[in-house]
Please model this.
Amino acid sequence: MPSIEEQLKAPFQDALRRPERQVTQPAVEQGPTAGRRPDRSLFLLSLDRIRPDPDQVRRMNKSETDQEVRELAESIRAIGIENPLTVRYLPAEDIYELVAGERRFTAAKLAALSEVPVKVVDVDEKGVRRLQLHENIHRADLAPLELAAALQDHTEEGDSPQDLARMLCKSVPYVQKALTIARKLTNEARAYVQAHPTSFKSIDQLYDTATLLPEKQLPILRRIAEEGLTRDEVRSLTATGKEHAKADRGSRRGRQPDTRPFRQTLRVDNGALVTVSFRKARATPREVKAALEQALELLDAPSESAH
Model:
């Protein structure tokens, strides 16, 4: 049987073993504090405790000389930073690394700020790339080349086009277009696009170009930049080139492209069959129609025997 001293100690020992109960504040139903709850991941952080990510998805339009960054700096001077930067803590180096918001970070330095609002996230390297990709696509216009390179990196890490489409809230064809750019646009074409970033903001333009034979890509890009071609104009210009590229791929795989003369037979209401033939292998519907119209003109013309 426990002694009186042990019986007196027991309640105090039991209390020490219990988890500390948090003091609950009475609920506030109205006023400025109603519905509020502190978030420990949000705080102000000195700029010298933050470093950019050297592998950031965005590679363009983020330097101190970029016009958009300088305009952002003027906005920060006037009203401050509205959206916190996203960072992660690296304990081995005792530093915070930027996950998203590098343009805001650069603009804050231009605006001579000493600290910025941040939100800390706990993610690994793959999670960082996913957050950066999502941030840049939905918050800022990511250049098509940057998007293509980032998605290609993800596929090399095991993500499928379907995975990427779900992650980005985009369609699978959208992702496949970007991957086509990453895989088929020549280095010469890439260099030209990078030298003229304002002329190539549409993923469709670069996708249409990437489907062409390598030697056809740069001339089309030059026309887009110099003539300001629309998507429909680019699609029209590249249509024939795509067929040639397809035939070339078939030839390189051991299949000969179809070089048989074009032939189309039409059945009309009275049961007659009308055949249109060309010496070349392909003909557009417009060319077939023009040939039929010329044939009708020949039928309407008076024959030599009538003279």
